[in-house]
Design goal:
Layout (H helix, E strand, L loop, with lengths): L1 H16 L1 H4 L3 H46 L8
Length: 79
């Protein structure tokens, strides 16, 4: 998603301008920027795409299961 990528870019940019990163060696600074961007990309992907999608999927499956057993039929069989 666009938000995930833009947040990773923004977090990397913030680190690149920080005083801590500027005090590092050039290779250390590049590594810190890369790690920050990668970490942001992974966590934002989990938080905004993977976890909500899985949660919604499981809630729908639970509702389907409950309705099937409540009405003793498979009302969603044609879907």
């Amino acid at each position: 998603s666009g938000y995930v990528v833009s947040d990773a870019i923004y977090q990397s940019y913030k680190v690149s301008k920080s005083a801590d990163a500027n005090a590092m060696s050039p290779s250390g600074k590049k590594m810190r920027i890369f790690v920050t961007g990668a970490e942001s990309l992974v966590w934002q992907s989990l938080a905004s795409v993977v976890v909500p999608g899985f949660t919604i999927n499981r809630m729908v499956a639970l509702a389907h299961f409950g309705l099937d057993h409540l009405y003793k039929t498979d009302a969603w069989a044609g879907i």
